[in-house]
Predict the 3D structure of the following.
Amino acid sequence: MAQFTQDFYQSIKDELFTNILPYWEKYSRDTVNRGFFGHIDNDNNCNTACERSIVMTSRFLWTYSAVARYTKNANFLEMADFAYDVIVNKFVDTKNRGVYWSVLPDGTPKVSKKQIYGEAFCCYGLSEYAAAVKELRENNNTEGEASPSLQPGSQSSTNPSAGDTPATPPETLSEQAMNLALELYNLMETYAKDSQDGGYVEARAIDWKPTKDMILSPKDMNCPKSMNTNLHVMEAFTNLYRTLPVVFSDAKAIRQEVGESLRDLIFVTKDFILQPNAHLGMFFDMSWKLLDDEISYGHDIEASWLLWEAAEELNQKDVMEAVRDTVIKVAEVALDEGFDQTNGCMENFLKDQGTLRDRRRVWWNQAEAMNGFYNAWEMTGQEKYQKACIQQWNWIQNHQVDKNGGEWWNELDQDGNPILSESKGGNWKTSYHNGRTCLELLRRSGN
């Protein structure tokens, strides 16, 4: 009988604190140009000229803020401070507001459109950072002072037009960060939300006007709506809803608004994105007509636990009752159809009417399988999810982890050999998926 042992949890803790976090602290930061390297190869060589994405930067912000909160150790905020400084000085569009999708090393916008996936991740990271700063610095500081390098009113202020002598006391750093998260939330509500059919569009132009350039990445379809964007908007709103009361004691009204947005998105996910086969559709038109038959096993298992997390955080009985069976069914189908039971790892995707099955073992699929199966085990108590989670961790430890170079291989073939054409780190691969997996399991288990 498969069981989660103390050794299992200890190995997860060791992975987080002796491999994942130290790797990114050592290799990811460009201290000359103030940012994170957009590409790190498998020999840990960093490309200094590559553009940098808001997604990457926000994921670092979230990870190290979340670790600081989990450990109650403010030392982890040093990486988060760096990421926050980069965001407010290089990514914030001071004219149109919101954040650029990507910038060059000197901060010049590279892709200036407002990709909603990126706005959501920035909101997600900022809200976690605000809570971490509040809990670990300001609650122990009667004057509410910010970090010396990030004083309110300095070059890192989110209000660049403010004068040197403001009429009212300056915001604390936690308030600055949370107010920027709320600004992004309001921009998404105003310009990206579909008030007719629900959910959020893929992108807007630099000035938040409609654009035909909606595509998220070369791997995606240029379409009005996607599962991936809406999934991570839901994730961001869940975190914003959770952290608002940490920073603001009078957050009831705005938290209620965020909660209503979150509730709407939970039902959009259940009613439109989820398909009758218990897989999530990937690409849609404005009225939620499915445009492609791709099944992404990693997104399925990730969505199962993020959907339940959103419902639990909202804590409304009718919402939880509405999605509980759905969450379990999605996890069950992901296990039955997407999990390699022999080797203990998650496969990538199925498309073209089932004729093309991608068996690559992508790092984030493996990480999200851990979260999804652990969550399904907590919800049902069924041993098959516990077994799958343990198998998945064994695969990660034996194959996905780069024992010589550090961190995890981006992709492996079905036999467990690294695909070296895929980078070790950069604009899409950061400390977020595997770092979050370790944090989730440690937090849920009380370790």
Observations:
- The mean pLDDT is 94.
- The two ends are 22 Å apart (CA to CA).
